[in-house]
Request: fold
Amino acid sequence: MKKLTLLLIVGLFTTVSVFSQTPETWKAGFKGSINWSRITPLGYLIVNSSAGLHGVDPETGKITWSNADLAGAPESSFTILDGTPFATITDVSGGLYMIEPIEGSVVFSSKDAGFETVDNRFFLYRSGAILVLGKKSGSGDPGLSMISMTNGKSLWSKSSDFGMVSACYDLDKEHCLVSTLFFVFKMEVKTGDEVWKKSMDPKFEKMAGFMKMMDKGSAGGLIKQEDLVADILVPEENPGACYVAVQTKTEKTVNGEKSIVYSNQYNAFDLSSGEYIWPAPVQFPDMLGTVIAAKKGFVICPMSSGNSRISVLDYKTGESVLGKKGRGVSVKGSVLGYSVLKEGILVNTRVLSGSSSKNYLYMLNSETLEPLYKKPADIKGDVSKVIRTGAGLLVITNEETNIYQVSSGEMTLDKPMEGGSNLTGTTDEFVYAFNLDDGIVYVIDKKSGSVKPMSTIELKFEGKEKPQYIELREGGIVVSAEQNIAMIDYNGVLTYQKYLPAPRLPGITRALLAAYAVRAAYVGAVSGYASAAFGAASNDIKVEEGDANAAVAKGLTQGMSQAYGELSNAGFTYADKAFKAMNTRFKATTESNTSMLMMVDKGDKLYGLQEVNKDNGKEESFIDMGKDKEPVYEVDAISNKIYYRKSATEIVCYSF
Reply:
């Protein structure tokens, strides 16, 4: 890299500092002053100025699209919608827009659609439409519109004759399933015509007229949109049927004290005709929680403030078939996640107690779905990954690492390794874990399950920092925090250790910390074969077993098929671009970048980002932010780019 000499002139004296200056990759100038900028999950740069909202190509700096209607839109209103390729943003007058950030397409405008407020929206990727629920302009009644993702135009609208939507399921290219306060519908997406309509409870079928009036009036205004919680399930285990789960909320007064009581109700319908499959709906106490589709039936896991009961409903009869007289089995806390294994279903639960919580592991029998052991295993933190070893299941949470023995239902390490998922790294043969408790790196052999210390000397960081991340490199394991970095080779020898103090300015490192947290989430998700990092939510704990590439592909395909696959099939060009961007991001998480950044003070209050080589700890290029005490910058730690607002109208990109 070319060496540059930087002259700092202070008064009549001139001092010379020599360091390598990172060259600019590109500059982008904007009309009007820049208000804020954001990096989307797929790596595209969004910039808002007094002249509009702009999309910037991260490779060239070219402004690829602009929307003048969104000039000055507040940063707090810009939200990437999880599980979708879209973002929402509100203009200065309160109008809501849904945009596609790659091409800047407006797929919905509340003003154009005639909505005063938007309460909810459901994305139907198979048919390329958005179901939008809100209040129509000039009316206090709920309104419903189906919007085309192609041009943002309304396909149809239903005003006060349709109740509040609680859930929507994208069934196929022509149909969707919709649930409201009292009804379940199968509808034509393009026309809004009803294929069939059923009450959630068969006993109300003869009162359909009254129920319709209650539905469209939201039960006399007693029910609010935020109180409507529901889910529509179409399991592969029982094709031809759909299941609707609804949460109800009741206020009770006992001895003058008011309390809220929740329950959740389930019913089954024939997909073709809408006919009831079960003789009556089934109800459970507590809030609607996780539902696991198993061979035997639905595993119902309600959310509770304390202990909860897991039940199993037979797909064909609705009969509760778990526990004595079908009453289910009690577990500590509520289910957070699960994984279906050949030994059974591994379930992670959590009990909340004030500001603290306790977590547990249960293993459910694969056939009966009964817990294999009455006493669960204690764990700390939420499970993010499970790795099969010769000594049991290596369970990695966000706080610790331990081994779960399926044959006994116990955690087998004498003491868990503190640190969790960000401090673990995996190869085909080994798992490496940094233990915060003793400052030592441990190596776990996947084949045998043996756990051995790799290093023998405790690693301590300066500046009162604790290690936050590890990365496996060819020469060893890099351990890092905000201002510390060290490498331990695979023989356990400390190769180097470096500490660069941060400037004592509040918030100056915030963007850098956020960037590395995002990268850690991506890397963790990819190594755990989870697609959540790419915008697709999942409740499952990911398990590493079998072919790694196949597992990764399966995870990404399952998570993104609707969000991008269906849209790509429908001919949306931005879906193709998004797929390419997603693959690039995915590849980047599997390839280690050669350096990390630290915000430093070079002296005389000269601030900037220092690049430190991960392989040897040497300081390399420096991104000069001058004497800017509050530098505004964004860091993309996936593609290794920095976007620095050099002036009120200009952003400069650096690559590291």
About this structure: Helices lie at 208-216, 510-527, 548-569, 573-590. The CA atoms of residues 65 and 104 lie 6 Å apart. The mean pLDDT is 83.
